[in-house]
Amino acid sequence: MAPHPVVEYTSEASWAMVEDKFSPYAKETLAKLIAFLEEEILPASKLAHAQLPTDPEKRWKTIIPVIAELKEKAKKLGLWNLFLSKAHYPEYGVPLTNLEYAVMAEILGRGGHIAPEVVNCSAPDTGNMEVLARYGSPEQQKKWLVPLLNGEIRSAFAMTEKNVASSDATNIRTSIRREGDEIVINGHKWRVNLLENLFECSGAYH
């Protein structure tokens, strides 16, 4: 039997340590992901960069054509939302364990900055989708989660604050409180993950 194509990206010894923990579905998905990376994503990387507008006003508001095409191919191949495990999110997830996805995430790291986005597995969207899937109200899931899962919108994450060491979340000073039927957020953010998407956000919460 031919070795799994993953051994081209990691040592045979490393693969041997986890291979028996991979389901047949996970092994097949991993092989498809590697083929998709090699045959579609890597060859498209330069084109994706070339299609990105140089105008700052348009740069972060443009849907890059080749990435949009690759997303549709990824959906058809079942290489979509791989990060979201059905074991934890039965309604939305895919039948992969965290271990199985970890190996796939490492493979995606070989595809440059476009690879995770092409399969809808890029930050901060992944973490935001997990939060919405677990804690979001039905209304929030309909408004934000479903479009994120479908790759129709992107999200942003604002954590860093100027005057505190924000890598420790216990230092965060931004507050949130209810006032009647409204929620009031009071704070100052310094750096924002995926800032380009923040300009499109109208209902983001800390």
Structural class: mainly alpha
The CATH superfamily of the largest domain turns out to be: Acyl-CoA dehydrogenase/oxidase, N-terminal domain
Radius of gyration: 19 Å
| Strand adjacency order, main sheet | 1-4
Order of helices and strands: HHHHHHHHEEEEH
Question: Mind summarizing the main beta sheet?
Answer: 2 strands, antiparallel
Question: Class of the largest domain, according to the CATH hierarchy?
Answer: Mainly Alpha
Task: Provide the low-confidence segments as ranges.
Answer: 197-206
Give the number of DSSP strands.
4
CATH topology of the largest domain: Butyryl-Coa Dehydrogenase, subunit A, domain 1
Q: State the end-to-end distance.
A: 51 Å
Helix share of residues? Answer: 40-55%
What is the percentage of strand-forming residues?
5-15%
What spatial form do the alpha-carbon principal axes imply? Answer: globular
Number of helices: 9
Can you tell me the number of structural domains? 3
Based on the coordinates given, report the CATH architecture of the largest domain: Orthogonal Bundle
Q: How would you state the average pLDDT, rounded?
A: 90
